UniProtKB/TrEMBL annotation:
Protein's name in the database: Calcineurin-like phosphoesterase domain-containing protein
MF terms (GO), sorted A to Z: hydrolase activity
Pfam entry (one): Metallophos
InterPro entries noted in UniProt: Calcineurin-like_PHP, UPF0046_metallophosphoest
Stored PANTHER family: CALCINEURIN-LIKE PHOSPHOESTERASE DOMAIN-CONTAINING PROTEIN (PTHR12905:SF0), METALLOPHOSPHOESTERASE (PTHR12905)
Length: 234
């Protein structure tokens, strides 16, 4: 049997929390508020200081400088008086973690697939334009862990006014791929772990919203620890 301890967190928004050690540190995005150069550099320093053997990062809609394609447009709106170097910042981050942008990494036989993209919301970074129906076909078959910034529909996606804002096409696709774990953030007020269909199935997928901050951007939650195991077939 091989086992990896995953320590998952999201939506730290330029605050830094103590994180317990484990095999893989996973950040599901929104490590900055505005994608400013100094915020990204501070995050990189924090990341480098963590003892975990493997580190996986997926950016979020606030980490705008890392959305290379959309940045020229976002810069006009949000960074008009700054002169950051998105390519360099992206490279600096890649140098200290597995940065997953619709891509995967395999660690000790487990496949992790990640995407920073979520449904359109106030024209931030990494937004899926129009329907997400085809977008999630990018998720690779055989993924053991799926990491997205935004939640799927029904699990960890309830806002403070009670509405569910998760992505219906994402949950459909995740249930087809059948990873062991789907971890995400995005909706701060819906922190927690949820079993697929109440844990009824033996192979129920675990859904985890690991937002550290609440909806008022106060640190309220702890990183979520998950033990990923596989019993070797004989
Ligand atoms: Mn956030």
């Amino acid at each position: 049997m091989n086992q990896l301890t995953l320590v998952c967190l999201s939506d730290t928004h330029s605050k830094f929390v103590d994180v317990q050690n484990g095999d893989v540190l996973i950040h599901c995005g929104d490590f900055t508020n505005w994608g400013h150069e100094q915020e990204i550099k501070d995050f990189i320093s924090w990341l480098k200081a963590q003892p975990h053997k493997h580190k996986i990062v997926v950016p979020g809609n606030h980490d705008i400088t890392l959305d290379i394609e959309k940045y020229p447009q976002l810069k006009q709106k949000l960074h008009r008086y700054s002169n950051f170097n998105p390519e360099q910042l992206l490279q600096d981050l890649k140098d200290c973690c597995h940065l997953l942008i619709n891509s995967s990494v395999t660690i000790e036989g487990f496949k992790f697939w990640g995407s920073p993209y979520s449904q359109e919301y106030c024209d931030w970074a990494f937004q899926i334009e129009g329907s997400s129906q085809q977008f999630w076909d990018k998720i690779e078959e055989g993924s053991d862990v799926i990491i997205t910034h935004g939640p799927p529909y029904f699990y960890g996606d309830k806002t403070s006014n009670g509405s569910r804002v998760g992505d219906k096409y994402l949950i459909e696709k995740v249930k087809k791929i059948r990873p062991k774990l789907h971890v995400f953030g995005g909706i701060h007020e819906s922190y927690g772990g949820y079993e697929e269909d109440g844990g009824y199935r033996d192979d129920a997928i675990k859904f985890v919203n690991c937002s550290i901050m609440d909806e008022k951007f106060k640190i309220q939650n702890k990183p979520y620890v998950y033990h990923l195991t596989r019993i070797n077939e004989i």
